Amino acid sequence: SDLIDKRYICVCYGKTKEQSMIEAPIGRNKDSIITRCITPSGKHAKTEYKTLSSHHSASLCEVKLHTGRTHQIRVHFKHIGHPLIGDDLYDGFHPRIQTQSLQCYKVKFIHPIYNKEIEIIIDYKNLEKIYQSVN
């Protein structure tokens, strides 16, 4: 919802565009109860990203969701040919990295009682290390 602004950081394979909007419907994968896929019969899904840094093998991106589908960031980044590093489920296997390179790093909302903006930010040093290690 627009009441809560969440931002994510991810590390994906390849060199992403400077910024982009990904709009592609996401639905269940008929062969799996876990994975999702891009399918015309899926639900509308919209993901916005900007590239914070990139080199020939990987990109570090900030991501904002406009919809909240299961595995949305992971599915959309696979769809544009940049799977998340370490994400075995969505073609991002890496021999040394056994975790999907994705984290929510910022949450912003208006406090329901005090009506003040609250912003919580945590660092993403682990993802920066992953980004730098993939060369």
TrEMBL record:
Protein name: RNA pseudouridylate synthase
Domain Pseudouridine synthase RsuA/RluA-like as annotated: residue spans: 4-79
Pfam families assigned: PseudoU_synth_2
SUPFAM superfamilies the UniProt entry points to: Pseudouridine synthase
Catalytic activity: a uridine in RNA = a pseudouridine in RNA
Domain of life: Bacteria
Coiled-coil annotated residue ranges, if any: none
Any single GO BP term: enzyme-directed rRNA pseudouridine synthesis
Molecular functions (GO terms): catalytic activity, acting on RNA; pseudouridine synthase activity; RNA binding
Transmembrane parts of this sequence: none
InterPro entries named in the record: PsdUridine_synth_cat_dom_sf (IPR020103), PsdUridine_synth_RsuA/RluA (IPR006145), RluA_PseudoU_synthase (IPR050188)
